[in-house]
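User: I'm new to structure prediction. If I give you an amino acid sequence, what do you actually give back? Let's try with this one:
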Amino acid sequence: MRKTEEQIRRLATLTGVMLMVAAEALAQEKQQPARRIVVSIPDRKLAVMEAGRVLRVFPTAVGAPKSPSPAGAFKIVERIPDPTWYGKGRIVPPGKSNPLGTRWLGLSVKGYGIHGTNNPSSIGHNASHGCIRMRNHDVEQLFEMVAVGDAVELYDAATPETAQIFAVAAAGTL
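Assistant: Good question. You get back a string of structure tokens that encode the predicted 3D arrangement of the chain. For your 174 residues, that looks like this:
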């Protein structure tokens, strides 16, 4: 009987500790509000949104006509600082010649992401193999603003929302 009572006490203590840990994890999770990335492929711009507000807009390069960027709703599934590029029979380690630049944000659509570039003159053009390219200093800022699980929306045509988001940015009211 005493052994059973002791086991119940231990179980109650363990349950209390687990509840406290879960509550702390939830509290920390709520401290970092979910952010949303909105990309206008025709405008070649990326906006970081939080609670319906535009936090920042960045210029980008998007997919070339022969390799367009995919439209749709995705999530960030990985964050890699100083990525290695794996191409057809070639591996390029982190550094100045790496086509992914200094950061990689992998999307939930295989093979696509948001990344830096070793060709900053491509920004503002339809020049990538479908990924969203950014200047290295811009993607480094974006990398610090977003987390795995954040939503990424790529639009291949204007919508009332994208028109409003990027009009605010163009007006310089950010």
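You can read the tokens as a compact description of the fold. Here is one thing that stands out. The CA atoms of residues 77 and 93 lie 21 Å apart.
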